[in-house]
Amino acid sequence: MNIFRLAGDLTHLISILVLLLKIYATKSCSGISLKTQELYALVFLARYLDLFTDFVSVYNTVMKLVFIGSSLAIVWCMRMHRIVKRSYNRELDTFRHYFLVAGSFVLALVVHEKFTLQEIFWAFSIYLEAVAILPQLVLLQRSGNVDNLTGQYVFFLGAYRAFYILNWIYRYFTEQRFGRWISWISGLVQTALYADFFYYYFMSWKNNAKLQLPA
Amino acid sequence: SPEGSLHDEL
């Protein structure tokens, strides 16, 4: 464990807490893409298949349970909760995310570290996470104004993978064997997809204006 | 299992 990875995990946790706060405090999920939440639930379920077979540390196991539990709880809330589901922007959240799932799975069948079920699902989860934010970014552009908590959620979600890139650089120089280029490339793509959001987020913060993404 | 196959990151 290094400071970059710890910062990344905590930033990721903060993004989830901000999202839970927004949904719980406002009893609304307006501006949140259910499709992105479903993709993230799939990412964690596919990535943590080793939850009960490979024990890394208490921290690792607890965080995996938190990520799986919170992502499923958010999807449940947005689909089933009587009050919250009424504020879901169904007509704006139209990204065909099934193509992202299919594409990531096909890529994982072709490009993986080892041809085992666990490694193929791991690679699938890495590729899917890289593009999982797309429905959310599209929804933000369509819904025009972005409320503060939603903006902060997306910001922290993007920032966490940037910390992971620093973690991979650190591990590359400190551990001879560390060459996880599947994570490297997907992590760079994932962070790059946030580039324009980060730009408009920073500009809105600098000008102390509401976050507006160009349609 | 050897470090190689084990994904120790979240």
Automatic annotation (TrEMBL), chain A:
What does the entry list under GO cellular component? endoplasmic reticulum membrane
Transmembrane stretches, start-end: 58-77, 98-115, 121-140, 152-170, 182-202
Keywords in alphabetical order, please.
Endoplasmic reticulum, ER-Golgi transport, Membrane, Protein transport, Receptor, Transmembrane, Transmembrane helix, Transport
One biological process term from GO is: vesicle-mediated transport
Q: How does it sit in the membrane?
A: Multi-pass membrane protein
InterPro entries to which the protein is assigned, alphabetical: ER_ret_rcpt
Q: Which Pfam families match?
A: ER_lumen_recept (PF00810)
Q: Which GO terms describe its molecular function?
A: ER retention sequence binding
Location(s), subcellular? Endoplasmic reticulum membrane
- Name where it mostly resides: endoplasmic reticulum
Which protein family is named in the record? Answer: Belongs to the ERD2 family.
The protein, known as: ER lumen protein-retaining receptor
